């Protein structure tokens, strides 16, 4: 189970890092023209960049605490935060009738919920 949790965590961290870098460094006008990025047309630059930074921090929070053995409980805490972020993303995409992105975000939400459950209950990090 530990290997499955690490694979899931690595996958989610990679997705978070990619999404974060995109939101933090790609101009909002270019994001709003891309599929799934239409929501950025009505959001401020600061909001989009802040979400990008949060996603980059989430990528770090999913991996570094466990690898460095410094507050490894932050891994499932970060996963819970990701669940909340994906719930917001699902609502946003749902309001824009972008249902394929609602489904995609629900997969990310399920992956994060699995990591949180796995690291809080099944295979918690122990010092």
Overall helicity? over 70%
Mean pLDDT: 94
How would you describe the shape? globular
The largest β sheet comes out as: none
Rg over CA atoms: 15 Å
Total count of helical runs of at least 4 residues: 5
What do you see in this structure?
- This protein is mostly helical and 127 residues long.
- It has 5 helices and no strands.
- The protein has helices spanning 2-25, 28-32, 45-68, 74-95, 99-122.
- α3 (45-68) packs antiparallel against α4 (74-95) and α4 (74-95) packs antiparallel against α5.
- The chain is globular and about 45 Å long.
What order do the helices and strands come in, and which of them pair?
Blueprint: H1 2-25, H2 28-32, H3 45-68, H4 74-95, H5 99-122
Short description:
By secondary structure, the protein is an all-alpha fold.
Structural descriptors:
127 residues, 5 helices, 78% helix
């Amino acid at each position: 189970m530990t290997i499955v949790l690490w694979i899931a965590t690595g996958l989610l961290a990679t997705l978070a890092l990619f999404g974060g870098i995109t939101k933090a460094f790609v101009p909002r006008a270019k994001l709003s023209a891309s599929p799934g990025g239409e929501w950025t047309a009505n959001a401020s630059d600061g909001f989009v960049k802040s979400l990008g930074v949060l996603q980059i921090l989430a990528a770090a929070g999913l991996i570094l605490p466990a690898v460095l053995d410094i507050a490894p409980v932050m891994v499932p805490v970060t996963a819970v935060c990701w669940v909340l972020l994906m719930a917001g993303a699902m609502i946003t995409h749902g309001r824009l009738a972008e249902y394929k992105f609602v489904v995609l975000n629900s997969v990310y939400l399920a992956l994060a919920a699995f990591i949180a459950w796995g690291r809080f209950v099944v295979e918690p990090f122990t010092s």
